[in-house]
Amino acid sequence: MAALLEAIAIKRKMFFELEDTPFHCLDVEISTPTARGGQTLVRIKMRNLLTRAVFDKTFKAGDKFKEPDLALAPASYLYSDGDGSHFMDQETYETHTLGPDLLGDALDYLTEGLIVQIQKFNGNPIGLQMPTQVELAVTYTEPGARGDTASGNVTKPAKLETGIEIKVPLFIKEGEKVKVSTETGEFAGRA
């Protein structure tokens, strides 16, 4: 049987199961009453891993949750089509198809062969965990003009191979590879 977690023990970035649904704790706030006999309450900002919905809920400190049967499996991105995005499990060589609702903005960073982590709940894929940074090629950007830095504007737009557009420094040229943060969608350096 899975271990039980008390609400007071839930910390940021932990996973727990409530009513047979896995949740990810985004933030936690503990309020202890000043009056005697008052109950300690735990307010948790959580994301439902099946629906991706985010909401706050308050629990008593002693409320118990199960640890969810979550597993991460390395997989490589193959391609996307009308059915969804296809990934090959690197351990079992099974192909998993995830719909756009499970991917979020991950499609902006996926390139063929990229290794990601597929999150599974009770053996079924429910989401994707991206690397913190990915390398993408610049397909189009204006050449940086000398003297542009005088205005304090030291970035320019660049279109990347996946179709997203980010701001890059003036010295980046077409065809170069850049590192992009998958959390913020911002330029993180030259590749």
UniProtKB/TrEMBL annotation:
Residues 72-126 form the Translation elongation factor P/YeiP central domain. Pathway: Protein biosynthesis; polypeptide chain elongation. InterPro entries: Elong-fact-P_C (IPR015365), NA-bd_OB-fold (IPR012340), Rib_uL2_dom2 (IPR014722), Transl_elong_fac_P/YeiP (IPR020599), Transl_elong_KOW-like (IPR013185), Transl_elong_P/YeiP_cen (IPR001059), Transl_elong_P/YeiP_CS (IPR013852), Transl_elongation_fac_P (IPR011768). Pfam families: EFP (PF01132), EFP_N (PF08207), Elong-fact-P_C (PF09285). It is found in: Cytoplasm. Keywords: Cytoplasm, Elongation factor, Protein biosynthesis. One of its GO terms (molecular function) is translation elongation factor activity. SMART domains: EFP, Elong-fact-P_C. Residues 134-190 form the Elongation factor P C-terminal domain. HAMAP family: EF_P (MF_00141). Involved in peptide bond synthesis. Stimulates efficient translation and peptide-bond synthesis on native or reconstituted 70S ribosomes in vitro. Probably functions indirectly by altering the affinity of the ribosome for aminoacyl-tRNA, thus increasing their reactivity as acceptors for peptidyl transferase. NCBIfam families: efp, PRK00529.1. Belongs to the elongation factor P family. This is Elongation factor P. It comes from Geothrix oryzae. The gene is efp_2.
